[in-house]
Design goal:
This protein is an alpha/beta fold. The protein contains 15 helices and 14 strands.
């Protein structure tokens, strides 16, 4: 039986919009999205519920429907029929009365596309309302042109007794090509904002949806590879890239952020070619988010910007996205190591925030503006020592700059947790005392010289 499962905020008559999770083949409204694969309808320990906590003015729902791969297991409907059924189901819950965003996994993305096509082609006012209110789609490993795994299952024929859903998912299936070409050529559909992610890890030895099939062929939409398989891609943790970006996507397309205000509380700056990278992601960032939330005493999680570039390739420019995120941050944590001031990106972030501090101190010399908090990962360099001495707020974490599997179970990890807690208490003061937002905060592009004390800088306008 199909139904629309309420996850969070669905009874709020004043909610800003609705987010609909749509599972794929052999999926479930809860299990698909749950890190342990639970089917508990009251589950709160998975990311649809976390989005509800972080976005209390948004209704979070999950569409449940039968999509079995084999007739031995259960039944299914052709995509065309299921789309009409799902539209009617959404309408029965008054979805379409406010803005809508879809988060779809695998075949669920094809279902969403077919639903929007039906909304466009059929003279059903309630369906057209859903199309009109659609503000965006997140595609997670959606095979826009079919999947080789479905073709392989289909070849088993009578042994497996594949359902219509498997037949429709075969690589280069005519109906999928037709749906994809229709979507690309319809301006109303292709202009709907979307983000696309696809897996880079195999599931039981098979790469289910590759880069080619994951690409919807929409101009200016770039499929993003992630280190997940076909199952784990739709089960992110709160600190993961997909969760953070989906949350930002919802906020941006529902206009939840107040104009003229900061987007981030903290910008996390670190050298991209350094051993600090895995340490930041695996140990420092998760604790920072946890303890900063407690220190601030907020009901929501603090907004911490941390980018996912792993290396600064030669000639690769400091991206405009990073510049904009820095401008929109109240303060910055600099993870200082010998590589920090030889990496153009981290150096540019440092100089940009220093220029903001200087500007504020010129305006109000009586107030000790502090916007940079230094986390010392490894201080062994003369030039780095000079920069550390100039910092008013800093913490030396060299004793815990390790990255090995047993670190979290070691006695020294408890000391590390306490140190991060102390950082968050001091960081709270920087956030609370941040200056009012200004859209023209300075951005400086800096280039490291072979001589550490020489830095070439240029002011940028955005």
């Amino acid at each position: 039986m199909s139904d629309l499962i309420k996850i969070s905020g669905c009874e709020n008559p004043h909610r800003i919009g609705d987010v609909i999770f749509v599972h794929g083949l052999w999926g479930d409204a809860i299990e698909t999205w749950h890190p342990q694969g639970k089917r508990d309808r009251d589950a709160k320990d998975f990311w649809p519920a976390w989005l509800g906590d972080d976005l209390p003015n948004v209704g979070i729902w999950s569409l449940d429907y039968e999509a079995e791969p084999s007739k031995w297991i259960g039944t299914t409907m052709p995509l065309f029929d299921r789309a009409k059924n799902a539209l009617e189901m959404l309408d029965s819950y008054e979805i379409g009365d406010r803005p809508v965003i879809f988060i779809a996994h695998s075949m669920g993305g094809l279902l969403v596309k077919q639903m929007l096509r039906n909304s466009l082609e059929y003279e059903q006012p309630s369906w057209k309302k859903i199309l009109t209110q659609t503000r965006g789609i997140i595609f997670l490993a959606t095979p826009h042109t079919g999947a080789d795994l479905a073709s392989w299952i289909g070849n088993l024929g009578g042994i497996f007794r594949p359902t219509e859903s498997v037949d429709e998912l075969k690589a280069n299936a005519p109906q999928l090509r037709d749906l994809n070409e229709f979507y690309i050529n319809q301006e109303t559909l292709r202009n709907i904002p979307m983000k696309v992610y696809y897996e880079k890890q195999k599931t039981k030895g098979v790469l289910v949806v590759d880069e080619t099939s994951a690409n919807p062929g929409i101009p200016r939409v770039t499929p993003i590879p992630v280190d997940y398989n076909h199952i784990s891609i739709c089960r992110p943790q709160k600190q993961d890239l997909i969760y953070r970006q989906v949350k930002r996507f919802i906020e941006g397309n529902f206009n939840l952020k107040k104009k003229g205000d900061y987007e981030y509380d903290v910008f996390l700056s670190y050298p991209r070619k350094s051993p600090a990278l895995p340490w930041v992601r695996n140990y420092f960032y998760p604790l920072l988010e946890e303890w900063l939330r407690q220190s601030l005493g907020w009901s929501r999680s603090p907004e911490i910007f941390v980018d996912d570039f792993q290396i600064e390739e030669k000639g690769l420019l400091w991206s405009s996205d990073l510049q904009q995120a820095l401008k929109n941050s109240r303060c910055m944590i600099a993870v200082l190591s010998p590589d920090y001031f030889s990496c153009n990106w981290s150096l540019s972030e440092w100089e940009s925030m220093r220029h903001r501090q200087k500007m504020l101190r010129l305006r109000d010399p009586q107030k000790p503006w502090v916007l940079i908090y230094g986390v010392i990962f490894h201080p062994n360099r003369e030039h780095l020592q000079e920069q550390i001495c100039c910092l008013k707020c800093k913490k030396n974490l060299k004793a815990w700059n390790v990255d090995f599997p047993g670190f979290k179970n070691s006695p020294q990890y408890l000391d590390f947790v306490q140190a991060v807690e102390e950082i968050c208490q001091e960081l709270t003061k920087l956030i609370d005392n941040a200056p009012p937002y200004e859209p023209n905060w300075p951005i400086v592009r800096a280039t490291a010289s072979e001589e550490p004390k020489k830095i070439q800088i240029s002011m940028l306008r955005m």
